[in-house]
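Re: [ENG-882] Designed sequences occasionally contain unexpected residues at chain ends

Forwarding the minimal case from QA. Structure tokens:
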């Protein structure tokens, strides 16, 4: 039988280990997500640029398009994942593509935020880092940050990306001014 004082020391060490593990996990998430957003921006610069303009010029439309597409394809992925082996594989592919588009959408919003935070910076990487880190730090705020920030940023960016894929050319400048 372990004496009571030893038990409380063991409990304290366990809590400290949990805190260290949580901190390291959170740090890995921040670094990994920042790297993913930089990768999306570097691999698809034209798509992210067109989608950034869409998110800036029509954020409500981008959000609605993102929400509708996310729910539609999310339900398809969930339905296929509950099927047999072949359907599960297709559902996994649909879900992976959906989350990939969501990641590109977060890169779009990260770039937009970074350009607004650092307008005079010539480095697109520093702008993207500033935007991505700002998004991630905002997501640490309890409740609003946990739920609203990632959902709004991701759905606006996802919808802007879908619009950018459908409408390949930017609208003429004269049409934007009207």
């Amino acid at each position: 039988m372990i004496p009571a004082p030893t038990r409380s020391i063991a409990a304290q060490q366990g809590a400290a280990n949990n805190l260290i593990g949580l901190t390291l996990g959170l740090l890995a998430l921040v670094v990994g997500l920042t790297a993913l957003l930089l990768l999306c921006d570097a691999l698809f610069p034209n798509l992210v640029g067109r989608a950034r303009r869409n998110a800036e010029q029509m954020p409500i439309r981008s959000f609605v398009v993102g929400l509708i597409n996310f729910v539609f394809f999310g339900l398809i992925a969930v339905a296929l994942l509950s099927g047999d082996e072949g359907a599960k594989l297709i559902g996994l592919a649909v879900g992976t593509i959906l989350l990939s588009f969501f990641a590109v959408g977060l890169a779009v919003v990260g770039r937009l935020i970074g350009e607004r935070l650092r307008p005079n910076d010539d480095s697109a990487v520093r702008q993207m880092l500033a935007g991505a880190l700002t998004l991630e730090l905002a997501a640490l705020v309890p409740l609003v940050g946990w739920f609203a920030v990632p959902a709004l940023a991701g759905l606006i960016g996802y919808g802007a990306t879908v619009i950018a894929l459908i409408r390949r050319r930017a609208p003429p400048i004269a049409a934007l001014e009207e």
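QA comment: On inspection the terminal residues look reasonable. The chain has seven helices and no strands. Proposing we downgrade this to a documentation issue.
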